[in-house]
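Quick start: read one record
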Amino acid sequence: MATLSAYPNTNTNTNTNTNTNFLSPTDQSNHDRESIPPMQNHPSAEPDSDANPNFHSPLLDPPDSVPPAVAPSSLLHLSFNQDHGCFAAGTDHGFRIYNCDPFREIFRRDFDRGGGIGVVEMLFRCNILALVGGGPDPQYPPNKVMIWDDHQSRCISELSFRSEVRSVRLRRDRIIVVLEQKIFVYNFVDLKLLHQIETILNPKGLCAVSQGAGSLVLVCPGLQKGQVRVEHYASKRTKFIMAHDSRIACFALSQDGQLLATASTKGTLVRIYNTIDGSLLQELKKSTLPWLFIALSSGTVRRGADRAEIYSLAFSSNAQWLAVSSDKGTVHVFSLKISAGSPGTTQSRSTSEPVVSSHSSLSFIKGVLPKYFSSEWSVAQFRLVEGSQYLVAFGHQKNTVVILGIDGSFYRCQFDPVNGGEMTQLEYHNFLKPEAAF
């Protein structure tokens, strides 16, 4: 059951539909100011079978923020905003907002007691955020989504659930709340429940939504191992795709919602699907082999299982590239062989035969590789600390990748789209250190 609450606006001089955002005027030259429709306050709501909205007295406003903390903060959550121009960090004291290019901290709020924020979801660059408490001393209950208006410095609405919230996704028109086995879709303006979806166990809160100006496409785990569910809300169609044999570890949508990248818990292959018809368009794998023993006398090829945990997948804005991070400490960039404007077809390169560059040390055995090796190899790589978790996105500058580490590391790198190879590091910061604040 979900309980919805819209907090009354006690400040008559404050309008919730503000254009206030997290950028100073000088930082907004290349970015549109974002806003959403005003959220309505309702005296009542119709009950739903699984979500029974009841409006009640608001919680006390959060305590006043205090100066940057004395004790160092521990990172609980990282997420990019919808255009990858900013990222949010949830800590055991509060939350922070950073700009990616140029890198700088543009906002922070540290609470004077408790303060753990386990989920921070931005809405582009506007003043509205979705917060969920987390850590050993959470600021809010972990089963509630708090809609925070930073123009008013308080929560203006909340959504309460019977179990912990695993993740939240925002669009200008929708709030998507992910629980361990259920997903709720709400209208942003009036918090009306529009849809609920049953899923397989989803402790990571896997969910992706399209962010283009067109209709909403939502992807989540299905009810079977290795299955993904695609909801096309404009056409009212549901598509199930058996993406992998093992459990889904990670997936990502292109901005328009037409392409889906998936990885399983095996972490050996990334697959690209057409979300409209569910067809497999391309397979990708890492550019380096764990080991390869070729017995020329018997004409056989053997391979070792180089499993990896995929942490993050990201399409470039034009869906020409895909970035992948894993626990192996390497970020890979792949070239997508999808014809522009026609995601249902691939370019001339066939995925039925091994794809090995003529410059590759494996080119001499092209044609004898088993089907496993027919997948595409990455164009560029960047080496990081093995075992740590990294989040990836493509930067606003051409051929750049932004990498965020759970250890507080920020990297901006550039790759060569023609020659590939190792990426060039352009920038590095540790955003958890006090001197990282500008």
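The chain is about 0% helix and 40% strand.
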